[in-house]
Design a protein that fits this description.
The complex is a heterodimer. Chain A is 40% helix and 14% strand. Chain A contains 14 helices and 11 strands. In chain A, strands 1-3-2-4-6-5-10-11-9-7-8 form an 11-stranded mixed sheet, sandwiched between helices. In chain A, helix 4 links the parallel strand 2 and strand 3. In chain A, helix 2 runs antiparallel to helix 3, helix 10 crosses helix 11 and helix 10 crosses helix 12. The longest helix of chain A is centred in the C-terminal third of the chain and has 24 residues. Chain A is globular and about 60 Å long. By secondary structure, chain B is an all-alpha fold. Helices cover 67% and strands 0% of the residues of chain B. Chain B contains 2 helices and no strands. Classes of the chains: A alpha/beta, B mainly alpha. Chains A and B meet through helix 10, helix 11 and helix 12 of A and helix 1 and helix 2 of B.
């Protein structure tokens, strides 16, 4: 078996048993990147020499019996808006075409402390908004992988990396993960540090990552936040609040049918599934999200936009312009309504392990000119609640569907426990996808 | 929410944009300007008690 096919957990186990080295795993992943990158275009930068140096160091330590964490020797992809010391970091923009940071983002520091290897920088939409990256969806290369964490999702999906980091302001982790048939996780707001990750909208930006199994995602979170504890465990199937309303009205027919089929399987295995009525305030979530994001994005880019507006691509340019026109009172009013929505949704969660919905409104759209809509994910970015997407099936064209789980604030570990239960029931294959070129 | 009020607000925002950046820019970004102005209008029309404070530091558990 080629090492690139292993999950993170499997690779870590083999390394501990002396049956695999970080060097061998890294070589296998680099070969996989060489083979598939012309078809998928997931990477901005892969510095072979630097990567192999790190892998050899991890191998030497492992040979001496030093394993810094369960991520020791595991190569990781990182979205190109994370600062990486000495490595090109472009933000997907010509404004940062030659930018090489002199320090690492907090997450990168944590990964390095844990013995992980930064494999390279993955493609992002411009400044993590909408103007697309060149990346293609491994399930059908004529389709978008989603965005903005486009390269991270595609790389994990086709076995170029067992773990890749992204960020989410609207739906930039869960949507591409769902489109690419992998597990995607967005943390509770600020559970993982945003330090050194280029901001898009400070109060909406979240760290997230993709893996091919829930177990791998849980290992990653536990490594980065070993202080997090589990809630009480009942050992029973979960109690799930099913969100219809807005989600049923906006989902495509095939997405909703696929969701119902997945829910049927969960119910068949003993999950308690209760249809939930969304609170009245929820209808405001899209507008509140838009106002806050437009203003914060305009503010984050205000200085460079004044001097270099022509170097921005069209979508971001228009979005910033629209944010500059929002009155201060409207921004504050949006933040006031936000508090109400959060309170109402937390009350809705009471008595449930988590809420569930389809992960996306549609499957991955055809074409690379846009990355799909974040409308099923941005409400949770607005509320700061943790979310996980688990692949749940395929549509008629063979494109992945996802089940989105929405958890309690800071209940991220417990949410993974529910996600693992759902993953086991749904039985979606988790081996790397060989790109399908129609 | 009044449809006329919303249209009037969007027109006013577009007018401001035109005065700031000129006709060509407004034409190019009208979709964004309209969508954000529509969201602002909707947010402005949502009734709130004066005692409701803004979220200034996100702490979802405290809301």
């Amino acid at each position: 078996m080629e090492p690139y096919t292993l999950s993170l957990a499997e690779a870590a186990r083999l390394m501990r048993n002396g049956m695999l080295t970080p060097t061998r795993l890294t070589e296998s992943l680099l070969d996989r990147i060489d083979e598939l990158e012309p078809m998928v275009e997931a990477w901005v930068t892969v510095d072979r020499e630097k990567v192999m140096d790190a892998a050899e160091e991890a191998t030497r330590e492992a040979a001496d019996g030093v394993f810094r964490s369960p991520l020791h020797g595991i190569p990781v992809g990182v979205k190109d808006i994370y600062y990486t010391e000495g490595t090109l970091t472009t933000m997907g923009s010509p404004l940062f075409a030659g930018f090489v940071p002199d320090h690492d983002a907090d997450i990168i520091k944590g990964l390095k402390r844990a013995g992980a290897i930064v494999l390279g920088k993955t493609e992002t939409t411009e400044f993590a908004l909408h103007d697309p990256a060149p990346t293609r969806n491994p399930w059908n290369t004529r389709h978008t992988p989603g965005g903005s964490s486009s390269g991270s999702a595609a790389a994990v999906s086709c076995g170029m990396a067992p773990l890749a980091f992204g960020s989410q302001t609207g739906g930039s982790v869960v949507r591409p993960a769902s489109y690419c048939g992998v597990v995607g996780y967005k943390c509770t707001y600020d559970l993982l540090s945003r330090g050194g990750v280029y901001p898009l909208s400070w109060s909406l930006d979240h760290i997230g990552f993709m893996t091919r199994t829930v177990e791998d995602a849980l290992i990653t979170l536990r490594t980065l936040r070993p202080d997090l504890s589990d809630g009480p465990q009942t050992g029973k199937p979960p109690r799930l609040g099913l969100l219809s309303g807005y989600f049923k009205e906006n989902a495509s027919e095939e997405v909703w049918l696929g969701f119902e089929k997945a829910v049927g399987k969960l119910w068949g295995e003993g999950a308690q599934v209760v249809d939930m009525k969304l609170p009245e305030s929820f209808r405001m979530a899209p507008s509140v999200h838009r106002v806050i994001m437009a203003v914060e994005t305009a503010a984050a880019h205000e200085d460079s936009f004044r001097e270099r507006a022509d170097e921005y691509r069209d979508y971001l340019k228009g979005f910033i312009s629209s944010g500059l026109l929002v009155p201060a009172t409207a921004y504050l009013r949006a933040q006031r309504i936000r508090g109400q929505i959060i309170g109402d949704m937390i009350r809705l969660l009471e008595g449930y392990d988590c809420l569930i919905s389809p992960s996306t409104q549609d499957t991955a759209p055809e074409g690379l000119h846009w990355t799909g809509t974040p409308s099923f994910n941005s409400p949770w970015s607005l509320m700061g609640l943790p979310t996980v997407t688990v692949p749940s099936g395929l549509n008629g064209e063979g494109l992945p569907l996802g089940l989105q789980l929405i958890g309690w604030p800071y209940g991220d570990i417990d949410l993974f426990r529910v996600a693992a239960w759902c993953e086991k029931v749904l039985e979606f294959p988790n081996e790397p996808k060989q790109p399908h070129i129609p | 929410m009044s449809g006329d009020g919303e249209k009037e607000y969007i027109r006013m925002v577009a007018e401001t944009a035109r005065a700031l950046w000129g006709e060509e820019t407004v034409k190019q970004f009208m979709d964004h300007i309209e969508r954000t102005a529509k969201a602002v209008y909707e947010v402005g029309s949502y009734p709130l008690e004066a005692s409701v404070e803004p979220v200034t530091k996100m702490r979802p558990e405290a809301a």
